[in-house]
Design brief:
The complex is a heterodimer of chains A (about 250) and B (about 280). Chain A has about 250 residues and is α/β, with parallel strands linked by helices. Helices cover about 35% and strands about 25% of the residues of chain A. In chain A, the strands form 2 sheets. Chain A has a 6-stranded mixed β-sheet, with helices on both faces. Chain A has a 4-stranded antiparallel β-sheet with strand order 2-1-4-5, covered by helices on one side. Chain A is globular, with a radius of gyration of 18 Å. The mean pLDDT of chain A is about 95. With about 280 residues, chain B is an all-alpha fold. Chain B folds into 2 domains: about 30 residues, no CATH class; about 230 residues, Orthogonal Bundle (MetI-like fold), CATH 1.10.3720. In chain B, about 75% of the residues lie in helices and about 0% in strands. Chain B has 10 helices and no strands. The chains are: A alpha/beta (about 250), B mainly alpha (about 280). Chains A and B meet through helix 2, strand 6, helix 3 and helix 5 of A and helix 7 and helix 8 of B.
Chain lengths: ~250, ~280
């Protein structure tokens, strides 16, 4: 059996306040090494919350999350060490606007891994080549298009040599004509054997790249299976309804 | 799902100039509102009109009635270096205090947070003149510090609170995603602060610090009521000798006006340069 990289067990997340919101209800899923898992579902279904709790950008209320058999949800876990190994790409890119593209990509290896700046920049150039943006190395983020910014953000996450990549709706803030360039980079990454957990609304991408598709609605995992199982033969009426709406 | 990055409302802390062309072009105004001249391409925009008016008026006074005015100008202008010295050192102190205070108020550390909060509330709740005099006398009594140094310290303490608020709103104006992206890369919170948040915050708050400098320069005249031999004090001493109150105060006002107008122009240029660099 393949080695599991991410294991989410019975995770619940409740936002406290006047109206308690159960963002995630009793979710369990496993991502094996080299697997691409795509989470789909309507807005507000807790997909992003679940994804963000993997590298502890959100704190879960109950349940357990393991990365490589280390429990990240435990308070003793050195989350910084884990985060070095888990790249994350955000919906709003979140590039550092005061740094050049090259500096954006190389800052984490230099500051966190204490790699020599020259060496880090050489490696960053390679990564920028890989996402097709070597010629933009000295530009600043606000001089780039959305698609280019997101590709830089992917290169920035890859610069830490992560074993896992998390994508939080990476194409939702992009104009339609830029979505493809980002998805192509992600597809290449998936083919290179990267373990990926992706929240997206791009069903075509999910079908093409995913090993497993997970459908979430109102905080619950309703259905999971291979793309053809979920897209072509959805079992739950809620999945069917959702797919009817968007396809 | 968080559909789009939410626009946080900073309206209480930050006034966003609607005329500013670019997004993220935020001006923070704490004490006196906008002192920085607005872009106005007309030859006689308000800044130029005021500045020329002040210069011309002063020149006319000196040329046509040199008898008291030349003497008054000489006396009062001798206070300019003192005013600047006090303001410059006080703002350096205020920036230091403000940095700690601002970091404290965004800190998750409960005690630090409380200390800076109480400090800001305390300072903002007491009239500036009352504080200045109180701190000045307290310094004299407890630490035996007097004169210029005491004025500088009391101004720094008073303006440190406002500076702290500027630093805080500058930090809070940085989108939350920046911190998230930095810590998701494995940085500690302090690394993220130093490498990602502060450099961006500085850019936002620099014009406000310039603004604050101008406010402080004007408010330094308050200290002259107790200690500082600055422009206003020189004028008042002159009045005491000659009883030329109206004439002297006119010159004092013109000197302050000309200085602040020049400085506000400078801050405006600085802001323009910052904005043009991306």
């Amino acid at each position: 059996m393949a080695k599991s990289k991410i294991r989410i067990e019975n995770v619940c997340k409740t936002y406290e306040g006047k109206n308690e919101v159960h963002a995630v209800k009793n979710a369990s899923l496993t991502v094996n090494e080299g697997e691409v898992v795509v989470i789909i579902g309507p807005s507000g279904s807790g997909k992003s919350t679940l994804l963000r709790s993997v590298n502890k950008l959100e704190f879960i209320t109950s349940g357990k999350i393991f990365i490589d058999d280390e429990e990240v949800s435990s308070p003793d876990c050195d989350i910084r060490k884990v985060r070095e190994n888990v790249g994350m790409v955000f919906q709003s890119f979140n590039l550092f606007p005061h740094l050049s593209v090259l500096q954006n990509v190389s800052i984490a290896p230099v500051k966190v891994k204490h790699i020599d700046r020259k060496q880090a920049e050489a490696k960053s150039m390679e990564l920028l080549k890989r996402v097709g943006l070597a010629d933009k190395a000295n530009s600043y983020p606000n001089q780039l298009s959305g698609g280019q910014q997101q590709r830089v953000a992917i290169a920035r996450a890859l610069a830490m040599d992560p074993e896992i990549m998390l994508f939080d709706e990476p194409t939702s803030a992009l104009d339609p004509e830029m979505i493809k360039e980002v998805l192509d980079v992600m597809l290449n990454l998936a083919r290179s054997g990267m373990t990926m957990l992706i929240v997206t609304h791009e069903m075509g991408f999910a079908r093409a790249a995913a090993d497993k598709v997970i459908f979430m609605d109102s905080g619950e995992i309703i259905e999971q299976g291979t793309p053809s199982e979920v897209f072509d033969h959805p079992q739950s009426p809620r999945t069917q309804e959702f797919l009817n709406h968007i396809l | 799902m968080e559909a789009s990055p939410k626009k946080v409302s900073f309206s209480k802390l930050v006034s966003v100039d609607p005329r500013s062309p670019k997004k993220g072009n935020i001006t923070i105004n704490m004490t006196d509102g906008v002192l920085i001249p607005k872009k106005d391409t007309h030859v006689f925009n308000s800044w130029r009109t005021t500045f020329l008016g002040a210069i011309v008026l002063l020149a006319c006074l000196l040329i046509f009635k040199p008898d008291p005015y030349l003497q008054i100008l000489k006396v009062c202008a001798s206070g300019i270096p003192v005013t600047f010295e006090c303001t410059i050192f006080a703002i350096i102190g205020a920036i230091f205090i403000g940095l700690f205070c601002g970091l404290g108020s965004v800190s998750k550390h409960r005690i630090l947070n409380r200390i800076s909060g109480v400090y800001v509330e305390l300072i903002r709740g007491i009239p500036l003149l009352v504080q200045l005099i109180f701190i000045y006398y307290a310094l004299g009594k407890i630490l035996h510090v007097e004169g210029l140094l005491a004025s500088i310290i009391s101004m720094a303490i008073c303006f440190g609170a406002y500076m702290g608020e500027i630093v805080r709103s500058g930090i809070q104006a940085i989108p939350k995603g920046q911190m998230e992206a930095a810590i998701a890369l494995g940085m500690s919170r302090s690394q993220a602060f130093v490498n990602v948040i502060l450099p961006q915050a500085v850019k936002i708050i620099l014009p406000s610090i310039g603004n604050e400098f101008i406010s402080m320069l004007k408010d330094s005249s308050l200290v002259s009521t107790i200690a500082l031999s600055d422009i206003l004090r020189r004028g008042r001493e002159y009045i005491a000798r000659t009883f030329l109150s109206l004439e002297t105060m006119l010159v004092v006002a013109l000197i302050y006006l000309i200085i602040t107008l020049m400085l506000s122009r400078l801050v405006g240029l600085m802001e323009e340069r910052l904005n043009s660099n991306g």
